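*Target chain*
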Amino acid sequence: MNSNLRRPYLLSLSILASAMIVAGCAEPAAQEAPASVPEVSVVTVEAGPVSLTSELAGRTSPFMVSEVRPQVGGIVKKRSFVEGSDVKAGDTLYEIDPATYKANHNSAKAALAKAEANLKVARLTSNRYKELVKINAVSRQDNDRATAEMLQAQADVASAKAALDMAAINLGYTRVTAPISGRIGQSSITPGALLSANQTSPLATIQQLDPIYVDVTQSSVELMRLRRALASGSLSSTEDGKANVKLVLEDGTLYAHPGKLQFSDVSVDIGTGMVRLRAVFPNPEQHLLPGMYVRAVLEEGVRHDAILVPQKGVTRDAKGNATALVLNAADVVEARVLKTSRTVGDQWLVDDGIKAGERLIVEGVQKVRPGTNAQVAEQQVADPAAGKGDDLASADRSSDHSQASN
C-alpha cells in the first residue's frame, strides 16, 4: 500500500480507538451516580378526645298500646270516632244500648230506698225497747230481737248500696271510652254488632306514638367491652349517665329529634347472643310509625387522647394484621404493626403501634421499603397574590419593551 494512503487510514483508526476508550470510561461513571431519594407524603399523628358511637339496626314500637274491649254485653248503637284519628283518654268510642242497664240501676235504687225505710222502723223499735226493758215493760228477749232486726236492716241497706253501685258501674260501661291517649286504628265492629263482656277480640287498638320507642340489639361481647372501657376510665360517659342516641331513617336522612337510651335488657338471647336495648324518642310530628326499620347511632362515650390515622395509610398483611410505614426523625422508613379497634369516619382508631407526633406515610408507600431513606414531598400551594404580582410584573416588562421599541 502506498505510504501516502496509509497515513490517513491509521489516523482514522487512532481517533476511533480514542473515542471508544473515552466512552468506555464515561459509562461506569454514569452508572456509579447516586440514586435519588424517593419522596413520600406524611401525616403527623395527633391525639385528642373522640366521641365514639355505635350504629345498630332496630325497629320502632309504640310507647303505650291499649286494646279496647267491652266490659258489658249488648248491641252497639253508635261509634263515636274516626278510624286513624287521635283520641284522648276518656273519650267515648262506642255506645252500647243502655236500656237494660238503666232499668237495673233504677231497680237497685228502689231496693236501697226500701232497705233504708226498713232500717228506720227497726231503729225506732230498738230504741223504744231499750227504754221499756229498763222498767220491765218488755222482756229482754223482745229487746234482743229488736236490736238484731235493726242490725239486719243496716246490713240490707249496705247490700242495697253495693247493688246500686254495681248497677251504676254497668250503666257507665255502656259507654266504651279510650283508656289512653293516642292514635286509634281500624274498628273491628260496626253499629248493630252484638258484644259480650270481656270478649277476646278487641274492638280497636290505641297506640301512643309521642314519645316512641326504638328497640335495637347489641352483641353481648360489645356490651362487655363497653362496660370494661367505662370502668377503666378510657371512656367517660355522658353527664346524665344516659347515652344520647341519634336516628337514621330508612331513606338515609337523619331524624330531627335526638333520643335517650332508656334501658338494656337483663338477659342475653340464647340463640343470637344479643342484648336488647331500648331508646325513647320524641315524636311530635308523628313521622315515626310503629314497625319502621331504622338505624340508631348510640354515643358510647368519649375517649381521651385517642389516635386516629387515615385509612389510606394502613394496609393488611397476609395474616390480616394492620400495618403501616412510619418515617422516623432520621428520615428512615420503619414498619409498624398497629392494633386497631374500629373506624371513625374515614380513619382508623389505633389502640397501639403508633404514638402522637410520629409521621405516618400516606402516599408513596410503594416507592419505599423499611430501612431505606425517604424525604417528605413538599406540598406546593398556589398563592393567588403571588400569581397576580407575577402577572403585573410581566405586564410591566412588556410595557417597557414596547416603549423601548418605540
In short: The CA atoms of residues 387 and 393 lie 10 Å apart. The chain has four domains: 51-62+208-303, 70-97+174-201, 98-173, 306-376. The domain at 306-376 is CATH 2.40.420.20 (conserved putative lor/sdh protein from methanococcus maripaludis s2 fold). The chain has five helices and 20 strands.
